[in-house]
Amino acid sequence: MIRAEGISRFFGSGENRVTALSSIDLAVQPGDFLAVTGRSGSGKTTLLNLLSGLDKPSSGSVHFHGDDLADLKEADLVELRRHKIGFVFQSFGLMPLLSAQENVELPLHIGGMSWRERRQRAHEALDALGLGSRAGHRPFELSGGEQQRVSIARALVTGPEVVFADEPTGELDT
Fold first, then answer.
1. Could you read off the pLDDT of 75-113 as tens digits, one per residue?
2. pLDDT tens per residue across span 8-23
3. Which of 6, 18, 128, 166 is deepest in the core (most CB within 10 A)?
4. Which residue ranges make up each domain of the chain?
């Protein structure tokens, strides 16, 4: 499903060049669960960004279902991310003026789903994560853990083939 071959990512140039990743090979098949661990600054987020097509490697290639992401037009990458990939961002990425319900509905709305269907699916996703009673609250009215669960619900509501989660449990109760 996802294959990375020799991916490296550099930032800056000359004496200021920083190597975030160097020659990474990786294969992820349907049903696999992969956890990337390491110290802060070790390249975990960079790796997720490369594998998901949010960023391009300095060298090497990333393939999704056999397609080299570097060969895809931006519009095709947007469609891939919209329909096949769910994201849980480290900083949640919630829209501050939208309710939890509306934040979860957002990818469905962008995808053209009817109001009634997206309302139902978002409600089910929030309920599954114990947030049904908090659906009308805006992010600033939610705890960090609740915001994280809204972000998880938004990532799952489209039924993606793969979910990229950057520190998904950082704010959750233990």
1. 999 999 988 999 888 788 899 999 999 999 999 999 899
2. 999 999 999 999 999 9
3. 166
4. 2-72, 100-165
Listed in sequence order, the residues at least 6 apart from 44 whose beta carbon sits closer than 8 Å to its beta carbon are 36, 37, 38, 166
- Given the DSSP bridges, would you call strands 162-165 and 85-88 parallel, antiparallel or unpaired? parallel
The CB density around residue 153, as the number of other CB atoms within 10 Å, is: 26
CA distance 162 to 164: 7
Alpha-carbon span 86 to 102, nearest angstrom: 17
pTM for this one?
A: 0.85
Superfamily covering domain 2-72: P-loop containing nucleotide triphosphate hydrolases (3.40.50.300)
Inter-residue contact 104 to 153 (CB < 8 Å): yes
